[in-house]
Write a structure and sequence with these properties.
This protein is mainly alpha-helical and 81 residues long. The chain contains four helices and no strands.
Length: 81
């Protein structure tokens, strides 16, 4: 949402997307954390690579997820896992 709001506010033409480094799949979390620590990006909400810790859904998002879950049928196998 923060990136979307920045695009609306500043315009897509005023933002850039850059590939900082190519790395093997096994090193992606480590390298992501390196760049998070180095640049401390304004629009990246999470502070720890590979973790959703600290992320909070908006009230609207929580309502939508709740509404979707109301009609969901969960198998017995899924409940046991």
């Amino acid at each position: 949402m923060a990136i979307y709001l920045a695009i609306v506010k500043y315009g897509l033409e005023n933002l850039t997307l850059e590939i900082l480094e190519y790395c093997c799949k096994d090193a992606t979390i480590e390298r992501e954390q390196f760049y998070l620590d180095k640049f401390q990006p304004e629009y990246y909400l999470l502070k720890k690579a590979g973790s959703n810790l600290g992320f909070k859904h908006s009230l609207l998002s929580r309502k939508k997820m709740s509404d979707l879950a109301l009609g969901r049928v969960v198998s017995e196998q899924a409940r046991l896992n």
